[in-house]
Design a protein that fits this description.
Elements lengths: L3 H6 L4 H6 L3 H12 L3 H12 L5 H16 L11 H10 L9 H21 L1 H16 L4
Helix pairs in contact: 4-5, 4-7
């Protein structure tokens, strides 16, 4: 269960938000309200991709990531520069666990600089903190 303490820690740094138990899901939900969830979806998909040990599965997932996020006009195209895109294309033949690291790093920085500050200022986050504050006050014995 999400605690007020965890939610308050998210305002300390983007890393605290993205590495906490509930932070990524809450942040993703917020980004969906902005219709800008492709970055967090890509970042989370990369985290899962790095854990793949089977080369066959890695190839399939790498191609799926490329099709969904990397190739020009992809349905959820992320904002990365051409050299990074070309490097990924070269690595797709035999993708390693670090194949998407540079793109993931760029997307992390985009989120940290752009959508994370908006999240902290959003009514979405303010209401969440308020509801957690209210529920923690109600559960405190007098």
């Amino acid at each position: 269960r999400l605690s007020l303490e965890e939610a308050l820690q998210w305002s300390q740094s983007f890393e605290k938000l993205i590495t906490s138990k509930y932070g990524p899901v809450i942040y993703k939900t917020y980004l969906e309200t902005e219709h800008s969830d492709e970055n967090i979806n890509f970042w989370l998909a990369c985290e899962a991709y790095k854990k793949i040990t089977s080369q066959r599965k890695r190839i399939l997932v790498a191609r799926k990531l490329f099709t969904n996020y990397i190739q020009p006009q992809a349905p959820n195209e992320i904002n990365i520069d051409s050299p990074v895109r070309k490097m990924i294309i070269r690595n797709l033949q035999e993708p390693t666990e670090s194949c998407f690291d540079e793109a993931q790093r760029i997307i992390y920085m985009h989120m940290e600089r752009d959508s994370y500050p908006r999240f902290l200022e959003s009514k979405f986050y303010q209401k969440l903190k308020h509801s957690l504050q209210t529920s923690s006050n109600n559960s405190t014995p007098n």
